[in-house]
Amino acid sequence: MNPSELLDLVAYTEWATAQLTAALRAVPDAERRRRDESAFGSLLGTFAHLIAAEWVWVERWKGTSPSAPPAWVGESSFDELVEQLHHVEQERATLLRALDAPSIARPMSYRTFAGQEQSNPIGDLVRHVVNHGTYHRGQISMRIRQLGHRPPSTDYIVWLRLPAAEREVRP
């Protein structure tokens, strides 16, 4: 993977998450917090997990390996989570823009929450983050639909078909 491809994937995932964030903003807070049978207990819980996972990977790429999700995962409001998301995206952009092709392919070591040492090229880890986000955006979209709201289409092909100016994430 070259740096341009890596940044393209990240741009897509940030656009898709921004589309979903806008849809979630239209869902009343009580519905975002309503307990459900999902792995994370609510729409807000799943959204928090998505953001926290991206935070974990940015921390690992910075050379630290958190042993647990950040404290804000279970304590934040929707607006606070969106603020955390923007912070994670800014940090990630700074880190990834500094990479060249050899550094994208070079394995980097990190520890899992269980303390296990792992090593993967950052390019593969970026692919994982993008895939993980897609998975959880799909879960959130389904739940939004079940609550009677309309989720956005966040398919990669939808993003590709947009004019370049519309692909940009706007805060």
Your description of this structure?
By secondary structure, this protein is mainly alpha-helical. Helix content is 63%, strand content 6%. A hairpin with a 5-residue loop joins strand 1 and strand 2. Helix 1 (3-25) packs antiparallel against helix 4, helix 1 (3-25) runs parallel beside helix 6 and helix 3 (43-61) packs parallel to helix 4. It is globular.
Quick take:
The chain has 171 residues and is mostly helical. 63% of the residues lie in helices and 6% in strands.
Fold topology:
Elements: H1 3-25, H2 29-33, H3 43-61, H4 78-97, H5 101-105, E1 107-111, E2 117-121, H6 122-146, H7 156-161, H8 164-167
Antiparallel strand pairs: 1-2
Provide the descriptors you would attach to this structure in a database record.
171 residues, mainly alpha, two-stranded antiparallel ribbon, 8 helices, 2 strands, 63% helix
Helix content: 55-70%
Proportion in β-strands:
5-15%
Rounded Rg: 16 Å
How many helices? The count is 8
Q: Report the count of strand segments.
A: 2
Oligomeric state of the chains? single chain
Strand order of the largest sheet: 1-2
SS class: mainly alpha
Q: Termini, distance in Å?
A: 28 Å
Mean pLDDT: 95
